[in-house]
Amino acid sequence: MQLVEEPDAFSRALDRARDAGASIGLVPTMGALHAGHRSLIERAVAARDHVAVSIFVNPLQFDRREDLDRYPRTLDADVSLCADAGVSTVFAPRAAAMFPADSATSVSVAGISARWEGASRPGHFDGVTTVVAKLFALAGPCAAYFGEKDFQQLAVVRRMATDLFLPVTIIGCPTVREPDGLALSSRNAHLSADERLAARVLWRALVAGRDAVASKEDRPGAVADTMAAVIGTEPLARLDYAAAVDAEDFTVPRSLDAARELRLLVAAVVGAVRLIDNCDARVPSVAAPRRAGRGDRSRSARAALRRDAEGSGD
């Protein structure tokens, strides 16, 4: 495995691998790698000949300087995990290399980036798409792996890649959870013992929301209220948002069966640590759609076919 720090060296390393006939997998991260990151890496290693992992704490993604300063930097441990998992190249650039002083370009995705996380963290998604666009430009044609824990981020990156005709296949991978349901996150390291127990409330809220949908509750607001009420039972947690949304555009549908694909979202501050989570939910009335002719396929069915095609190389 090789560790490179300069953007040009990273690009050349992947070009050499591609010229030798290797397929390329890319796992963008901010480091502090845990089992969730490892699951992305292992999926990429299983499907691609040459896997690159980027480790870069992107300053543009943080709306508060103290959060940027607090983000854990564990490069030695991260490199060791990558080597053990079969990674071929680790790219760990300096901030000045990725964002020179005279940088004048940013990338923004309208619409889906404005809601939920976008509203709670102004500028966050612009920071994500700007750095990811740079990584894609350096990596060249590849498959890029992202976790579904950051589900809105996954959708924003996918929209950017589609709109800009980037030669990158975006592959979403399932959220990895602790046995009690807490989604793995680098932020969990900042939780105290009591806050760690309290953080389980996010998954309990999602399960309650999913149960409400399964019981044929068709009002998005009622499902959101159910999840919010669960968060409200935990004294150490403060709700940011709870929502039942259309997974394609992140709007709240007029009724749940109007959603092309339904996603439940929650965000809460536990102690001083802000956490997010999400899950899918199956609306009973559309669980078994009617057979469609060639000219009569639903948008949700087309979306499912697209996801299958994106994962077909894995």
Summarize the amount of helix as a percent range.
25-40%
Total E-strand runs: 9
Strand order, main sheet: write it out: 1-4-3-2-5-6
| Main sheet: strands, sense, barrel | 6 strands, parallel
Corresponding CATH architecture of the largest domain: 3-Layer(aba) Sandwich
Characterize the overall form: globular
Radius of gyration: 20 Å
Instruction: Output the number of helix runs.
Output: 12
Describe the structure.
By secondary structure, the protein is an alpha/beta fold. It has 2 domains: 172 residues, HUPs (Rossmann fold); 101 residues, Pantoate-beta-alanine ligase, C-terminal domain (Pantoate--beta-alanine Ligase, Chain: A,domain 2, 2-Layer Sandwich). A 6-stranded parallel sheet has the order 1-4-3-2-5-6, sandwiched between helices. Helix 7 packs across helix 8 and helix 10 runs antiparallel to helix 11. It is globular and about 55 Å long. The two termini are 22 Å apart.
